[in-house]
Amino acid sequence: MVGVIGVHQGLFGRVTLFRTNQPVHVHAHPHVHALIKVEGRDGAYDVDGTRCPITDDEMVLINPWVPHANWRDVTEAPITILALYVEAGWLARDGGTVGRRPFTRQSARVDPAIRALVARIATTMTDAASPGAEDDLEASILALLQRVLAANSSVDLPEVNARAVDHRIRKAIALMRAAPQTLQNLDGLAQGVGLSRSRFFEQFSASTGMTPGVYNDTLRLEYAIEQLISSDRPAGDVALDLGFSAPGHFSRFFKNRIGFTPREYRRVANVAGQRGAD
Hints:
By secondary structure, the chain is α+β, with helices and mostly antiparallel strands. The protein is built from ten helices and nine strands.
């Protein structure tokens, strides 16, 4: 059966485990992105015009905002892929910096340690109800990120112990992610998880590398991007979802972070989609 097998939202971003035998049109993400084969047939992705195989021995690495699509010579045999979406702001935590293109190449070798971690993560994501699964999964993913970035990157991933993150910050992040379009009342959120405002900001920034406000805006921005790309909803409706009283306020919010107005971004995305469908 093809489709999404599991999704895990973590402090770093998200991981998706999926099985597919369908082509994916040209698209891009605001994330540091890696695609690793779990099982099934070999495949390939077109990353900014370069064909990059995805096999037992080679993974695909994609920098933020780089257009990519899977190779179009698909067969009936599916491939199962573990996809990492890492937030650049999380990589830049603790005073670090992340360039616009942290990966120096578009592919890297899958060594035995990476292969073992991928197998463990995939197994855990399909049996997430087991005791301690979430903590084990987060720790395994962080270990995998270390290996992936070390394989081909200009970024040093900070050392993080997932179990050391305050459970109240995890709860706050879960609440924010449950309603990504919502402009959060951060004082109320802090109170709801049992922290003072100052302690909440301190702990949240230490865990994510961003203030709660920046993190909230990042989620809202990703929601807007998803709506603009995957639906025909008017931008004014998306603006209302995000709590903006006027479309012009939404346009400024979007352009200040992306460099394009929502209308410009949607037009470029639609052109890319039409090109990928040719």
